[in-house]
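Progress against Task 2.4 (sequence-to-structure conversion) is shown through the following example record, which the project officer requested during the mid-term review.
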Amino acid sequence: MRTFYKIISLSLALMVAYSSTFAQGRMVSGRVISVEDQQPLPGVNVVVPGTGRGTVTDMDGRYAINLDEKDNSLVFSFIGYTTQTITVGTQTTVNVNLELDTQSLEELVVIGYGTVKKSDLTGSVGSVKTEDLVKVVASNPLQSLQGKIAGLQVINGSGTPGSAPIVRVRGVGTFNNNNPIYVVDGVILDDISFLNSSDIQSMELLKDASATAIYGNRGSNGVFIVTTKQGTTGGDGKAVINFSGEYSVQRLLKKIDLLNGRQFGEVVNQFRPGEYNNLDALPNTDWQDLIFSVAPMQNYQLSFMGGSERNQYYFSVGYFKQEGIIEKSSYERLSLRLNNAYKINNWLKMGNNLSFAPYKQQNTAGGAPFVVYRAQPVINPYLASPRGDTIYSEVPGVGNVLADIANTNSYNRGLRSVGSFFAEATINQDFRFRTSLGLDLAYGEAESFTPVFYVSPQQQNALNDLNKGSSIFTSWLWENTLSYTKDIGKHHVDALAGFTSQQLRNEFTNRSATDLARTDPNFWYINGNTVVPTSVNDGVDPANYFSMLSFLGRVNYVWNDKYLFTATFRRDGSSKFLVDNRWGNFPSIAAGWNLINEEFMSSIPLVSNLKLRASWGITGNDKISYLDGYSTIGSANAVFGAQESQFVGFTFSRLGNPDLRWELAKQTDVGLEFGFLEDKLTGELDYYNRNTEDILVGLRVPGYVGNGDQTVVYNAGSMLNTGIELSLAWTDEIGRFNYKVSGNLTTIRNEVTKITGTGTSDDELLAFYNGQTITRSRVGDPIGSFAGYVTNGLFQNQAELDAYPHRADAQPGDVRYVDINNDGLINANDITNLGSPIPTLMYGFSVEGWYGPFRLSLDFAGQSGNKIYNAKETVRPDLYNYEAHVYNYWRGEGTSTSEPRPTAGGSNFLLSDRFIFDGDFLRLRSLTLAYSLPKSVAEKAYLSKADVFLRGNNVFTRSKFPGYSPEAAGGSPLFNNIDTSVYPVASSYSLGINLTF
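Structure tokens generated for the chain above:
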């Protein structure tokens, strides 16, 4: 913490320090150190009182200043330390020891367009530092945040190398896009997959409206503010060099328990007697063992950090490569970062934050886990070949997954560059004007080649084919802000005003070719002889093709360090809406009370911190296509005239809604911050209430409109999210052993409060899977609630079957479904709510301990209260393998009450509570054991610090769900926590080093 404040204070000192004069006089020099640890303090302000002259100490705490004959004293000030005034007299050397000022040493929190002391914060903000982000080896920094911040849900739904997690802040708040935004060094982005975790200084999550309203229309789903590392100031220009390297081995965390060959044969013989006459002679192929393997992962980082009185720099290069646990899947990225800041003079500072991230991704056969789950275990994967070449066996229904992988050649490659350029001017000490230009540029290519191959009539490719695509994304953001900071007696005012403009463009092109003459990758090109004319397609992504103009303002007021007030306003104009509804207003207000600073609290020494805060505000959402407001036409061919000639024309294509307006989220937050026993125990407690109105959602319209199966977007719904967040931390020491225990939990209650229909859907939203309704969202229920039949055991005999309502094809041993509406029939009217995919409780906790050079940390994450639909088990158009529990099938009256008689499909596999599981889980997300080399040993190798460590990620997961992982969430709130078989999440074990020169 002290190092952080040294850097911050040094930056501030360079902005406000006055240049030394060259008048006649004497030179006074010396060194400033800390009383606490006798270490030099860089960036200390050294000022001649009553004049405009001063300087700052360098990295060794040294200073030198010219004094006039009449100058008799110097003032030494540094953030977090008590200011001292020293009488110089005739001395030429003045050394100073500064003492810590515990009253002023406070954590600074990064908020939108600025920073604020933690004690002055009125909003709900969570924070994560670098040391937590690097605990998980991953391509995306967000994967490290699971269980780290109250109110944050990070779902690692896929283990595909390079995949991004799904992120939710305080639950699901809308029917459409629920993703938060990310502000990286001032640039507003939709994802941060290009970022190297080691380059990040801190990440703040803005959760309530007081914190997010400054971002207006984008703040309703939460805002991440990412600050990357910067150089040091006031030094001698020497660089601090850091190298870190980590090598990991990945493996499948958990296999799905499926029938072996003999069990499969026995089950099939129940409904196909004599299919397998000799069960003991059947092959026993474990397809999971054939495709899942141990795979390596590498992560390396080299950085240089330094600066002088006039400039600061940070440069890094990182390399990340992950091989997938399924063959032909990988992700490789090189990340480059250059952050610079230049002090042009005493009032002007300029700089840049630039990143470049070229990447390459290989994609295996997309349905491989799906195929492995269904492939019959009684088939050998290969046929005997007299020539010794590979001949794949035919696998009925799903094909041979090994052949799919062997003939898949799919790649994505591209470059992502995100950067900002800024200038900052200080005016009359109190005002600061900042202008910045942010750029987000991305170029991507996709390439897929399938050669000629034959396995079976259902699994073959008669002509080779090549598919290519490319996309160009550009976004620029120009922001201008004027801030004012002033302390007048007991009054502190911090105000901000500004305007921003942004434009996004995303264009793509796709094309295909077939029957290439040469199949070597060097000849994967498309020309006039091979191109498929109907495959050529150029267009734009209508969700990322728009412009925006915004005006913003904020006032923070603090009186006597006790009473806090914040007011924020932003006005956004988006080209996604037509003129009459283009502008939206997003205000917020907040207040706080630092009870700890009241006189009556001095009589309660047990309490070291106590603050109340409350906020209310409105944020927005415009995450729709810019075409949703317009009715569109499309091309069509028609035949006219006696010659029956074909003409190209245009006709109605899709209905638009010109009355679309902003989706609004109104949020209330009440919080309590506390500390006890000199902050050994600290915590925060928040109650939140978020009511989203005028939700933008696509609805079906009556058939006579002529819109076909397409939906029309309306402001057609409302949703409520309420809950409590609690964060606690205990820090203490026992002799030489230091430890910290921290944790957080969040409760979520989600409810759809309104759906306004359009003629065919006036009270519900539906999602379908395999031709059946799988989720149904109704007023009063959580969004995306599972829909299906309720079961009540099995029919044990014919008499029981005759006595109860049943489907026409039911037999003894089949599933008995409950007649919900008591009409004597089992049909779609008996489909009911089977549970919610949204957890009612999320939590995480960490344990860290230090003893001498050793450090041990464990990070856990979990959730409960939600359900998972094992939908992959319900798809049975062909004879597939079964999960192992099926072997306990009904063999006659009384033999089973849960596993029906074996069938290849039919009514026993209707979507029902048989396939619903608790989504509760507890995961050991990270386990790290580190050892720091003694300083005397490190210095012999010219190192200032050296660490070695062992690490495990996803070490174990406790869950009742029989799938690969209990995290099966999808991007759509209407199709959420439905396991249709995805690439499994792997566990990994690492050996790493961290060296500082």
